[in-house]
Amino acid sequence: MAGSVAMIVAVAAGLAGQPGAAQSGVPESTKHAEAYLAEFANCVVAQKSHAAPVGRFLRVIPDSAGFYPASMKAADLHCLDAAARRSGSVLEMRMQPATFRDALYPALYRRDFARQGPVMAIATAAPALLSAEFDGDLATLPANYRIQRALGDCVARASPAGAHALLMATPYDRREDEAVAMLRPALAGCVVQGQTVRLDRATLRAVVGEAAYKLARAGAASPA
Q1: What residue spans define the domains of the chain?
Q2: SS3 breakdown of the chain: % helix, strand, coil, rounded to 5?
Q3: Which residues contact 37 (CB under 8 A, 6 or more apart)?
């Protein structure tokens, strides 16, 4: 989330450079890139052989010295090849570790909670403890991580159904538009008065995805 958040994914030699008409000002190349990144993350989290390195990567303090090496161990490039075969394209991915991390939590949520529908236990799950989520000095967390994480937790708790709809949708398709509309009241209610928060779709998916996945797991682990 924090630090190098920009999407750096080139999708097919011809696609990445096309200006294209944009939905909500987003170039077609970005829409394709984010859809492929979501597919790549879905594939990575489905690989049992990668469960341990993915778990270790997600416990590393973002932007710390070990962040990039851990991301490379967690990434399964066979999944990139699989996406290329399905799309009939030649894909090249130059991926920032923060962007990869942003895609993993929505993918983990889809993997574990897609079939059961919205996880209403999110609303009442116990508060998360960052000390239990990271290995390293929490004082070195990027400056905006706590702000974005608090916003994601608030939005997911306020609208578990909206969060679920957002995370199930393909980036920039009609279902995602509908999910964003569902989440607008929660977003408005979760922003502190006088505070200005700018979120693009990728960041919204990231902050809601991380919060929804962690809160859903906490809710599932809580006694009924």
Answers
A1: 9-221
A2: 60, 5, 35
A3: 7, 9, 93, 95, 99, 103
